[in-house]
Amino acid sequence: MKYNITKVLDDAGFRATNADKYPLGEIVSTITKAFGASPSLACSHGAVEELYLCFTKDFKPRDCANGLRTAHNPLNARKSCPTSIRIPEYTPLAALGDETSSLIWTPGHTNFLLQAME
């Protein structure tokens, strides 16, 4: 995968954890350096909720027009990012105790299918 943000952040020492906080500016500069364009982030309760990479029509990275949603630049106050943020851990549906569904992933595809179990 050419634009693997998780790997870029992990390689730079920014681990997905529900406890550790990292400087927002360092996360943004790490992504910008890796892809040549600045991302757009939205946070909720001090954690990254959404992270966008923006592209031109010919699929080259470009700076996101909306920029950062921070407490100092509140494009959306509910989703603003503090100066230190958490990168939440991924919790699959099965780990949430929902034994009636499962995620199916097929190599070569980018979509997941949520399937009810009998």
Automatic annotation (TrEMBL):
InterPro entries: RNase_T2-like, RNase_T2-like_sf. GO terms for molecular function: ribonuclease T2 activity; RNA binding. It comes from the Eukaryota. Belongs to the RNase T2 family. This is Ribonuclease 2.
